Amino acid sequence: MLRRLTPVLLTLLVVVLGVTALAARPETGAPRRTADFVVLAGVAGLRWDDVDPQTTPTLWRMAEQGSIGSLSTRSAHRPTCPVDGWLTLGAGSYAAWNGSRQQDACPSVGVTIEQPDRIGANLPDQESVVQHNQERLPWGAVPGSLSESVRCSVAIGPGAAVAAARPFGRVDRYAPKLPDDPADLLGSCVLSIVDLGTVAGDDPAARKAEARRVDAALATVLAARPPRSLVMVAGVSDTETPSRLHVAVADGPGWEGGLLTSASTGREGYLQLVDLAPTALAALGRPMPERLFLGRPAIRVDGRPDDLAAAIAAPADADREAGAQRTVAGWFFALLALAQVALFVIVLPLLRRARRLAGPHSPPPVSRRVVATVELLLIAAALAVPAALLADAVPWWRVDHAGWWFALVTAALVVAATALVRFAPGHDRTLGPLGAVAGLATLVVGADVLSGARLQLNGVVGYSALEGGRFSGLGTVGLGVFLAGALLSAGWLAQRFRRAWRPMVVVTVGGTAVVVVGSPYLGSDPIGAVALTAGVAVAAAISTGGWLTVSRLVWAAMAGLALTIGYAVVDVRRPAEERGSLGRFLAALGDGTGGLTVHRAGTANFETLVNSPLSVLAVVGALLVWFALLQPWGGLMRLFGIYPAIRAAMAGTAVAAAIGGLLGGSALDVAGAAGALVVPMAALASLRVLDHSTDRTQPGAGRQRGDGPSGPPAGDAPDGGPGGGATTTADEGSRADRAEPDGGRTGDVDAAGGGAPAAVEGTSGDRSPATGDTRTDTKTDTDAVGGSEGGEGGDGDGGARPAGERAGADRPGVPAARTPETPATPSTEVATG
Fold first, then answer.
1. What is the number of other CB atoms lying within 10 angstroms of the CB of residue 730?
2. What is the rounded distance in angstroms from the CA atom of residue 288 to the CA atom of residue 146?
3. What gap in Å lies between CA 379 and CA 614, rounded to an integer?
4. What's the pLDDT score for residue 157?
5. What are phi and psi of 695, to 5 degrees?
6. CA–CA distance from 553 to each of 11, 539, 556, 675, 777 (Å)?
7. Residue ranges of the chain with pLDDT lower than 50?
C-alpha cells in the first residue's frame, strides 16, 4: 500500500514546497501619497557619466539630497528614440510612435503640435498613434494614460507634449519652451512634464556643453517648483545605437538620500521608464487606470553610499558593463555552439570504436591518450557556461579590449575547473566526471542566486538591464544550467542509494532546487519553478527503473499543474499592484486582454528561436543524442540500463527545459543552456560504458578455481554475489550493501552478441562425480542493458577503473562459477572438452 502511495506523496511534497516558495513575497513597502504636485523632467540621452559637480552642479546637489538609480529606457521600438521614450512615459507601458522607421536607428521624427488657443495644444496624429499601439504592437499600450488619470496636466516643450497628450490628442496646458519664471505654470496642475533638452553624440566636449544647458534649465524648474512637490529627472531615451542606461533622480518629501527601485525590477538602484507614470500617480495618491501600467511605482530603499561620487560610480560602471556584455555575449555563445558542434563530430568515431569486439576483424582500439584528451575537452565544454558566469566577478569590462580580457579570464576558469574535476576523488569511475561537473555547475549558479544574482545582472551569460526583461533572480541561461545541474546531481546521488530510497533523494534535491528557483527572495522565476517541478516529478517517477509510462507522465503533469493552480490562487488574490506575472495574466483573461500576453509570448519565442545561438546548441545536442548516443552503438541506452537514476535525471531535464522555454518565451534557450551541460557529460559517460562493455569477471581473491575438488553444493550464491566464486572489480568493494539489480532484460549476456560463456580452465568443463553438475566460469558482458548495478554506497564503481559494468549477479540462464567444497579425497576426474 505504501509503495503505491509513494508517487502521490512525493508529488504532493514537491507541490507544497513550490507553492510555499512562490507564495512568499518580500516586503516592498506599499507606496503612499507623499506630494501634492509632481514634476517629471525628461532629458533624452542623459547618462550618469554626464553628471559631475562642475558640469551639472544643480543636478549634483539634487542627487545628493534625493534618491538615485539607473533607468532602463525600454520601449516598443529598439532602440528607444526620443519620441518613443516620451510616448512610453505617458503610456506607462511599452509604446512606439507609428510610421516607417528602421530598427536600430533613431531618425528625426517630426511631431505636429497645434495651438488653437494660448492655453493648451493638440496633436493631430495622436489618435493614429494610439490605434497603431493597440492594433499593431503586442503590448496594447494606450498613449496618454497618465494624463487621463489626473484632472489637469502641464507640458513644457515638444517632447513633454507627446507624453502629456491625452488619447484623443489634447494637451491641457502647454508651453513650447520653458519660461523664465514657470512657477504659475507648474502650479496650475498637479502633474507637470518638462522637456529639458537632449544630450547626444560621442564628443565629450559637445556632451558637456549640452549637459550645462540642461542643468541651467533644471535650476529654473527647481527654483519655481510648487511646495510639497516631487521632482523626478530622467534620461527618457537613447539618441543613437547602442542602448545605454540613463539617469534617474527623485527629490521630494520621503525621497531623501537613498536608492530607487520598484517591483518591476526587484533590484536596488534600478528603474524602468514604464515605472515613472505609476510613480507619479502613487505619489499623488491617485488610483491607477483600469488597464494597469506595465510598470510599478518606484520606492526608496537604504543602502546608498554616503559619498555621492561613489554612489554615482556604481550605476556608471553598470552602464559600461551592460554595454560590454551586449558585444561579448553574441560571440561567446556563437563560439560555444561551434566548439561543441566540433567536439560532437570528434566524438562520433570514438563511439563507433569504443566497444572492443571479439575476432580478427575488430577495429583497433583508440589510443588511451586520445580518449583521455577528448574526455577533458568534454568536461571543459560542459563547464564553459558556469565559468563565464564566474568570470563576471572580475571587472574585465573596465579595461581596453574588454572582450579579450573576458576570454582570458573565462579560459583560465575553465582550465582550473577542468583540473578540479580531473583530480577530484572518483574521477576514474564511470559517473565520476558527470557528478563532479553537475555539482560544480549547480554550486556556481546556486551561490550566485543566494548572494543576490549579482553575477547574472549585466553578465555575459546572464541578463542585461538594457533589455528591460529581467533585473533580478535567475535568467534564461542560468535557469537552464541550474535545472540541469540540480537534476543530474539528484540522479547521481540517488544512484548511490538503494532503489527504494531513490525517489526520496530526487525529491529532496529537486524540491530544494524548486524553492531556489521560485522564491521571490532568490530565483524569482515562477515559470521556471513550475517547469522544474514537472521535471522533478518525472525524474522521481522513473528513478527506480522502468519506462516513462503514461501514468508516470500524468503524475508529472499533475505536479506541474497543481503547483501552477496553487500559486495562481494565491497570486490572483493579491492587490493588483502586487501581483506577479501569473496573477496579471489571469486578471487579463478576466477582462479580455489575455490574448496580448499570449501574442507577446509567441512573438518572443519565435524571435529567440531564429536569432539565438543557443537554439543551435539545443538542436545539435538533440540530434547527437537521438542519432548517435541512443543508437545500439552509442552507449547511452547501456548507460541508462545500468544507472536508471541518471536516465531519470536526463529525462526530467528534457521535460523541465522544454516547459520552461515554451512558457517563458525563450524558445530553445533554456534547452540549449541545459544541453550545453548535459550532452557532453552524456557523451563522456557513454564512452566509458562502451569502453568496458566486454569486461569479464575475475576469480575471487584467495579462492580456488572451479576445476578443483572444493565446489559448493548446487544452488549457492551466483557469480558476483556474496559468496560467489568469481567476482568483478566492482565486487571487491563492500558486499554488505549490494544494490538490487535494476530492471531490464534478464539473461542478456552481451548486448552486442559477444561474451559467450567459457568453461573454467580454458574451455573445459569439470563434471563432479559426486553431484554430476557442470561448473563454468562465466565471462559475461558486465554492463549490458538491464544488468546489475554496482555496490550500494557508490555509483556502481567499486574499483579504480570506470565501473558499473560488472557481471549480472541475478541473471538466470548464465551459469556461475562456484568454488566446490573440499572432499576428503581429492577428485582425480579428468575434465572433458
1. 26
2. 9
3. 19
4. 94
5. -60, 145
6. 12, 10, 5, 22, 43
7. 28-29, 697, 699-833
